[in-house]
Structure formats: structure tokens, C-alpha cells
Amino acid sequence: MNVTFLDVPGMVRWVTARGVENIVRDLTTAIDADFARWQDFDKTPRVASHSPEGVLELMPTSDGVTYGFKYVNGHPKNPERGFQTVTAFGMLADVGNGYPLFLTEMTILTALRTAATSAMAARHLARPDSTSMAMIGCGAQAEFQALAFRAVLGINSLRIWDTDPAAMDKLERNAVRAGFDVHRASDAREACRGADIVTTCTADKANAIVLPHDAVEPGMHLNCIGGDCPGKTELDPRTVAASRVFVEYTPQTRIEGEIQRQAPDFPVTELWEVVQGRRTGRESAADVTLFDSVGFAVEDFSALRFVYDAVRADPDVATVDLVAEPADPKDLFAYATAAAVVGV
Ligand code: NAD
């Protein structure tokens, strides 16, 4: 049986034709809509296999009609060896008969969905008059984050910092070409000065402090992406303790997020509660809000559905024969050995 198959060239064609900003804007709406029906989803912390170099993870969920999962890795030292820190692929399946529907690359799609989720959170949590964003970490995710914040919140001014000057050169080049006003900072503290939003998007398998506690100003929204594994965080615990903290799925974030360094009952709000109007997001212009992002399966499900709906009817999109379909469903053996029986 043929399954819709979007390989890397296919994803690149789709992204190029539709445009990153258009995709993240619409994907933000799709993720918001799925958070608005949060109760429909099976939820479990992702299944992680850790090694000294990184982590391999499976992220499943289902809404009772469609099932989805993503395979993703996180290896902070990979760029030194010419590999990416994060790569992924994933699929959707029909809950009714269990057959796969869609198989796709998700390295690019993860960058799009992470940016869309960040923008979705910031739309609920950042001050509405925000105009500038500090970006600490200028790696693979950075441009996607910047474009999502422009598409959804109108942020056009970036203050960038990375310990690797080549990564800053790359982000500055791409962001200026995309029409952003870019300030190259001399350190993280200077990057944050006067910024309305701070995105931390660094990779280091350590309890790092990439955002100095005294650089956090009243009213900031902190969008923290890179602390997403046990022993891999980006913030001073004092910054977390002094913020109003919003998470995706608490049982997973307590293991993986910035709050892993807080008490097990540290108070958090899940984003879906804000989306559904059950709890408040920002309460005053002086609040420091923190989105402690780790990446959750429902976001990948939203992204998979979004792309599948966009490409499934396109005759140029490939299919792959992934499910053996014997004429007699009980005679898989004859189907599997047909070539041997006729002697070919
Ligand atoms: P990357 O390796 O391409 O980029 C990371 C950048 O951080 C590098 O340029 C590196 O030089 C920089 N950096 C490291 N330490 C720093 C420091 N102390 N100060 C400033 N810069 C520093 O990685 P990426 O693909 O951009 O991913 C970034 C992080 O986001 C990773 O930790 C990844 O695991 C995480 N991630 C999270 C989600 C999520 O949903 N929360 C999704 C995707 C990726």
C-alpha cells in the first residue's frame, strides 16, 4: 500500500514554494487549535535513550483518529564533526486500521514547529508592545525562530549573541537578507539590554547559564528552547524561580526542562490552560514570563497533520510502498515468498 512520502528535497520544495513566514504563521494557528483540544490527546513523556554524546527520542501521541510519532536526536557536539545537533523524521497513521498514512523528514519540520510553538506561546505571554528580541545561540533553529516572531508578533529588531563568531556571521547574513534590523552584541548581557523578548537556543550537554540572571529586566518574556534534557539547561535557577513559568506537558518538562533544577512541586502553568482561558498568562507589564520549552509530541502531531493536509493531493509528491498487502490477509507467507515459488 502506498503511503505519502515527503523526503528532504520534497520538504525543501514545499518550504520554498510556501515561504517560512507563511508556514510558521499558519502552523502557529494549527498548534494553537490542537492545544485548544488538549484533552483529546494521549499524552506521555517522550521515550529517551541517553548516551554521553546526546539523546535519541521517540515522541508519540494520538487524538483517537490519527496517530503520530517523531524520532529525534539531540547531539550538541555534532556540529564539530560536521553533523547537525538535531535531526528527525516522523509519520502519521490511521487509528482505525493502524496503517501508516504519511512518512516525512522532520529535521526542517522540527525547526518550523519549534518556532511556531515559541511564537504561539509568546503571543499569549509577551507584552503586546514588544518590538525587539535578543537571541542567545545563533545555530540551526535561529532564523526559524526570528521569522516566526516577526510573522506572529511583528518583531523586526534582533540583538544576537553566540560564543561562535561564525554562527553570528551566518545569522546576521541571513537575517539582514530577510530584512531584519540586526545588532551584533559583544556578550549575552549586552544582547539582552532593552530587549522585550529573549530567546535562548544554545546546545551544550551541561547545566549552563547562557543568560545572566542580572540581565533579566522586568516585563521580559523568556523563550527558552535549549534546556531540553536531563542535565542540559540554560538558565540560572534564580531566573526560573523569579519568573512565571509556562510549560507544554508538566511530567515531561519536570524531567527535561529548566524546572528540573527546581523543587518537584515548583508551580507552573501548562500552555493549553492559557489557550483555553482556564488560567491567566501575563498578569502585568512587569511580569517576567518564561516559556520553558522542551518540545512536545502534540506539536509534532500538529505539524505532521499540517504538512500532510498541504501535500497529500499534490501529484508531484512521492509515495512509498510501505505496507505489504496480500490478497488473502492471512496468507502473508505466500505473498512474501511468491518470487521463490515461481522460481525467479
Ligand atoms: P546548533 O548546535 O545548531 O546551535 C546551537 C548554538 O548555540 C551554536 O551556534 C553554539 O555555538 C551556541 N552556543 C553554545 N553555547 C553557547 C553559550 N553559552 N552562549 C551562546 N551561544 C552558545 O543547535 P540548534 O539546532 O540551533 O538547537 C539549539 C538547541 O535547541 C539545542 O539544545 C536543541 O536540543 C534545542 N532544541 C529544542 C527544541 C524544543 O522544542 N525545545 C527543538 C529543537 C531544538
Bound molecules: nicotinamide-adenine-dinucleotide
Q: Kindly provide the name of the CATH class of the largest domain.
A: Alpha Beta
Distance between the termini: 23 Å
Radius of gyration: 21 Å
- What is the share of helical residues? 25-40%
What do we call the CATH topology of the largest domain? Answer: Rossmann fold
Q: What is the name of the CATH superfamily of the largest domain? A: NAD(P)-binding Rossmann-like Domain
CATH architecture identity of the largest domain? 3-Layer(aba) Sandwich
Q: Profile the largest sheet.
A: 8 strands, parallel
The proportion of residues in beta strands is 15-25%
Give the strand order, joined by hyphens, for the main sheet: 9-8-7-10-12-16-14-15
Uncertain segments: none
Total number of helical segments? 12
Beta-strand segment tally? 17
Please explain how this structure is put together.
- With 344 residues, the protein is an alpha/beta fold.
- It has two domains: 141 residues, ornithine cyclodeaminase, domain 1, CATH 3.30.1780; 169 residues, 3-Layer(aba) Sandwich (Rossmann fold), CATH 3.40.50.
- Helix content is 34%, strand content 24%.
- It has twelve helices and 17 strands.
- The chain has an eight-stranded parallel β-sheet.
- A hairpin with a 4-residue loop joins strand 2 and strand 3.
- The longest helix has 19 residues.
- The mean pLDDT is 97.
- The structure holds nicotinamide-adenine-dinucleotide.
- The site of nicotinamide-adenine-dinucleotide has 29 residues, from helix 3 and strand 11.
